Recover the amino acids of this structure.
């Protein structure tokens, strides 16, 4: 049994990480081959950094992810605070279900419906689809990120309850002041995790972007996909390697931080 | 002392259920007033209406002569100490207390003097930089009181503030609250279900039940002259017996005619008669006005609690002398120990100890033991 456990574990980690390790490995290949490793080189990294298309796409992706995450966090936090305060249980449940639909909906359906909507909108306003490229993407991404933000903020708002808000009002805060001075600092962990989730989702969304995107606003997933139609060059391996390393560093830092926080908590 | 707060015909219902039914009450400047009643009697709702967290469906609320029903909580000169303290977990002790001053844009210097004064008053000097989550219940309570008082409100509302503390700490805090109230001289409106707390701290007690005020009076009035069976039963222990007022100062109950000190009732009017357990003397059966069989004796420390069956009605008597169960004893009651009340809707609901037995106590003890 003990042996079985070990084998099982090795198998799982192997399946998870061997492809990634292969990718990192071949990103340092000096030849343009996925089969033969001809020698270590940073050639593909050099090529990656000299390609303007890739940089444009990376920049677009980051701008989109940050703005979509910011927008959905602001709207989602306000929505969560509003949903919590709703008096009618029926309306509360209804709103909750409606906000969850984009989360349950297959991406392909959301993507198609978004595309239809923007095409129709462009038709009605008789403008060029290209001219709303970024706006369309931003609206689409904010929409599908929103339920995740609400999902991560609402439990925090519910945990906080009404007593702190009432205390703040009692001690001289206007309702707005009470939100920023008392509620927000206490639901901040939920808001931050909502933002992070939205950022990640927007960053690697392909399906919805594929439907909504226009030729003048390319994101990284769209660019990589368009390359696979021809041939994926190893500079994409290099890019993926860089992304993996960034994520890895993020994870290590956040784990160390939360570990420290937990140790501090247990000391009290 | 002038009327500082006045409630006129305050009515409130939640989901069609009436919680407050036309409450009329005035509160004088500088008094310690307690709203006392069982849970669900509307005392907290009354407090929340004064604080501005609920709006009455009907009625008027006056503060210093002005109607304030539409004034939002942050503009009322009233601060609240909440049941669960509601301290801000993201601020330390100093910042929690400084919070209302910062909202009112006090200078940093003034804030420092005032917060330091408050910390001295609640004996928490040296705790400035502590996180509120590391404090004990009693210390959190003190921070909550300091925070509510630091901006010098005219009225402090306290919603069962000692409910979460253990008995010893409660007693200490009761004294401390009373001392603070005397020292700063502002009005305290205190909500509790603990009758002992209400009697020992208040200038005025307002007994509430079922959304209505049952009686308003000083603690001694409320205890000695309860208006109806509910008040008599809720405040302390009482034997409440059906009686007939034969004439002024003559009442008949349990088959014996007693001399009492009350009058002003119609001839042969049915009344409720209250006798406090500590006012009954145990004597030999032949010397007693009433005789009965002891069914139960419980040792309570200062006295024995004796349940006596008198013609089917069970009385509670507190005596420092031991009597054995099943013994026949006589009861002697002084005229001024008998208090007569008019019949009310609460007549017959309280004041009979026939359901009282050790068995029930033991059963409930067993239940709580299982929970832990």
């Amino acid at each position: 049994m003990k042996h079985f456990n070990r084998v099982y574990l090795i198998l799982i980690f192997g399946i998870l990480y061997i492809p990634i390790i292969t990718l990192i490995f071949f990103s340092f290949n000096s030849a343009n081959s996925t089969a033969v490793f001809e020698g270590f080189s940073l050639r593909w990294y050099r090529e990656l950094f000299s390609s303007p298309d890739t940089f444009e796409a990376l920049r677009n992706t980051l701008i989109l992810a940050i703005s979509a995450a910011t927008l959905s966090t602001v709207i989602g936090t306000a929505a969560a605070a509003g949903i919590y305060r709703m008096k009618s249980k029926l309306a509360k449940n209804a709103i909750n279900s409606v906000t969850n639909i984009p989360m349950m909906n297959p991406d392909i359906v959301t993507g198609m419906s978004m595309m239809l909507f923007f095409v129709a909108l462009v038709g009605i306003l008789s403008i060029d689809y290209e001219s709303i490229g970024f706006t369309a993407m931003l609206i689409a991404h904010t929409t599908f990120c929103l339920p995740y933000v609400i999902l991560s903020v609402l439990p925090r708002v519910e945990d906080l309850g009404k007593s702190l808000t009432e205390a703040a009002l009692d001690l001289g805060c206007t309702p707005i002041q009470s939100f920023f001075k008392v509620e927000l600092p206490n639901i901040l962990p939920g808001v931050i995790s909502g933002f992070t989730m939205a950022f990640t989702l927007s960053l690697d969304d392909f399906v919805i972007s594929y439907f909504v995107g226009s030729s003048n606003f390319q994101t990284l997933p769209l660019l990589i996909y368009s390359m696979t139609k021809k041939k994926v060059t190893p500079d994409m391996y290099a890019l993926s390697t860089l992304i993996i390393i960034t994520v890895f560093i993020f994870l290590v830092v956040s784990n160390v931080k939360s570990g420290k926080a937990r140790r501090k908590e247990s000391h009290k | 002392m002038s009327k500082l707060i006045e409630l006129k015909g305050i009515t409130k219902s939640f989901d069609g259920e009436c919680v407050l039914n036309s409450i009329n009450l005035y509160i004088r400047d500088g008094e310690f007033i307690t709203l006392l009643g069982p849970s669900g009697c509307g005392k907290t709702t009354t407090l929340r209406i004064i604080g501005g967290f609920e709006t009455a469906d009907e009625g008027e609320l006056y503060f210093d002569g002005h109607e304030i029903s539409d004034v939002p909580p942050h503009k009322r000169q009233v601060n609240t100490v909440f049941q669960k303290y509601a301290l801000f977990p993201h601020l330390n002790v100093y910042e929690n207390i400084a919070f209302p001053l910062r909202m009112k844009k006090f200078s940093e210097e003034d804030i420092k003097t005032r917060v330091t004064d408050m910390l001295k008053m609640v004996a928490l000097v040296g705790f400035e930089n502590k996180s509120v989550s590391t404090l004990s219940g009693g210390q959190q309570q003190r921070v909550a009181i300091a925070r509510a008082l630091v901006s010098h409100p005219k009225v402090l509302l306290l919603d069962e503030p000692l409910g979460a503390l253990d008995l010893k700490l409660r007693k200490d805090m009761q004294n401390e609250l009373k001392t603070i109230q005397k020292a700063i001289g502002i009005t305290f409106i205190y909500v509790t279900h603990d009758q002992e707390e209400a009697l020992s701290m208040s200038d005025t007690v307002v007994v509430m039940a079922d959304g209505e005020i049952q009686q308003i009076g000083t603690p001694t009035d409320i205890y000695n002259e309860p208006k109806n069976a509910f008040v008599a039963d809720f405040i302390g222990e009482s034997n409440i017996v059906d009686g007939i007022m034969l004439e002024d100062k003559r009442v008949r109950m349990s088959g014996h005619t007693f001399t009492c000190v009350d009058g002003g009732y119609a001839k042969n009017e049915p009344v409720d008669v209250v006798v406090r357990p500590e006012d009954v003397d145990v004597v030999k059966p032949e010397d007693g006005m009433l005789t009965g069989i002891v069914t139960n004796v419980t040792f309570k420390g200062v006295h024995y609690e004796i349940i006596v069956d008198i013609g089917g009605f069970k009385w509670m008597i507190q005596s420092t002398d031991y009597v054995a169960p099943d013994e026949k004893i006589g009861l002697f009651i002084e005229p001024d120990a008998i208090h007569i009340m008019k019949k009310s809707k609460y007549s017959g609901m309280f004041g009979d100890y026939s359901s009282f037995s050790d068995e029930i106590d033991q059963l409930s003890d067993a239940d709580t033991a299982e929970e832990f």
